[in-house]
Amino acid sequence: MRLLAALIGLAFCSSTVALLANGCSSLSTCQQCTGGACGNACTWCASTNACVQYLFNLCPLTSQVASAYNCPWSVSSSLEYNATLASNDAMNFLCAGNEESADAVQIALSKEYSEVEVLGLYTVPCMNSSVWSLFGAATSSSHCGAYVVIVNSTSTIAVVFTDNTSTFELVTKLSNIFAVPAFVNVTGVTGTVYDLFANPLVSLLKAGLATDIQTAMTDYPDYNLLVVGYSIGGSLASIASALIVTTMKPDSFSGSVSVYTLGQPRTGTAAYAEFHDSVAPATFRIISGLDPVPMLPTTLFVTNPPFHHRFEVWYNSTTSDSEYTMFHMAEDPSGRASALFGNITDHAYYFGRNVDTCRL
C-alpha cells in the first residue's frame, strides 16, 4: 500500500515540482516532507535532516520518518525526564501497589516518605477483550489495580496503576495478529484506544478512583500530580492522564502533571497518540532492556495500526545502574524498535527490581 502511494506521489511530485530529483529535496522541514506535499513519495531522514525520495535513498532505515506526527520534537526544560524520580519514586509507588489493601500500601510507603495518605485501593478484572471472547479465548484471572496517594513531604499526588498479568500471557495474547483487541472510543479522548485498556480503566474510575483523584486535586491544588503505571497499568495511566487533564482537573489546580510508565504496550491509534501528546506532553514511556511488551500489539498486517505517544526512554539493561537514551520521535526506529528480538524476562525487571513481586 505504501509502495503504491509512493509511486503515485512520485508522479504527482514530478509534475508539480517539475524536476523529480529536486521534488523532495526542496522540502526543508520534516513536517513539509512527510505532510503530503509530494503525496507519499518523500521520507524525512533524521540523521541528515533532509527530505529524500521514499523509493530511492541512502538514508538508514533507522533514521527514516514517514509520518508527520512522528517528526522529532525538541524538548523544553519543563519536559525534562527525571531519572531519579523514575528509578526511586515511580518504582516505590509500583512496589507498594503489590500490597493487598489501602492500609498495607500506606504502611509500605510510610517506610520511604513522611506524611503519607492513601485514599483508596481498587482492583478490577483485566486482560479481557471482546475480540478474544469471540475467538473462544479463556477469560483471564488477572486483575488491574489503582490507588491515589498524597505525599505531603514532597507535595505530590500520585495516581498509580498496576496489574498482575503474567508476562507470558500478555505477550502471547498481544502477539496474536489474528485476534488483535478492538479499538473503542472513550468520552473525553480523541482517537481510539484498545478495549483491553479502556474497559478496566472505566471500571476503576467508577469504583471510586475518579472521586479520589478529584478530591486530592481539589484539596491540594498546588501539589504536582504524578501518574504512574506498569505494563497494562502503563496503558491505563496513559488514558487516565489524558482524562484527568481534559475532564477531571478542577479549575483551581495549578500543579504540574507528569506521566511515567514502565513497559507500556501500544495503547491506541496515531490519532490518540497525537491527542495524548497535546494534553499530557510530560509523558515518559520507560523501556527496560529488551522488554518485548512495548512492541505490542503489532503494527504489521493491520488496517488501523496502533502507535505509541512520546517520549520513549530506553534503558540499555534491567540493572539499577543502566544508562538510558531519550528519543524525540514517538516511534523512533533507532530506539527499542531497532532491536529485532526481545527477552520476555526483561518485562518484569526495571531498575534492578522485579516489578511484579517487589515490596518496600
Strand order of the largest sheet: 5-6-7-10-11-13-15-16
Largest sheet: 8 strands, mixed
Q: What is the helix tally?
A: 10
The low-confidence runs, each spanning 5 or more residues with pLDDT under 50, are 1-10, 14-20
Q: What would you give as the CATH superfamily of the largest domain?
A: Alpha/Beta hydrolase fold, catalytic domain
* SSE topology string: HHHEEEEHHEHEEHEEHEHEEHEEEEEE
Mean pLDDT metric: 88
- For the secondary structure, the number of strands is 18
Structural class: alpha/beta
Net shape: globular
Radius of gyration from the alpha-carbon trace, in angstroms: 21 Å
Q: Any key phrases for this structure?
A:
globular; Rossmann fold; signal; Fungal_lipase-type; about 350 residues; ligand-binding face of the semaphorins, domain 2; AB_hydrolase_fold; alpha/beta; Lipase_3 domain-containing protein
Question: Topology, pairings included?
Answer:
Blueprint: H1 2-17, H2 20-25, H3 30-34, E1 37-40, E2 42-45, E3 50-53, E4 64-65, H4 83-96, H5 102-110, E5 116-125, H6 130-134, E6 143-151, E7 156-163, H7 167-174, E8 183-184, E9 193-194, H8 195-219, E10 224-230, H9 232-248, E11 257-262, E12 268-269, H10 270-279, E13 283-288, E14 306-307, E15 312-315, E16 324-327, E17 349-350, E18 353-354
Parallel strand pairs: 7-10, 10-11, 11-13, 13-15
Antiparallel strand pairs: 2-3, 2-4, 5-6, 6-7, 8-9, 12-14, 15-16, 17-18
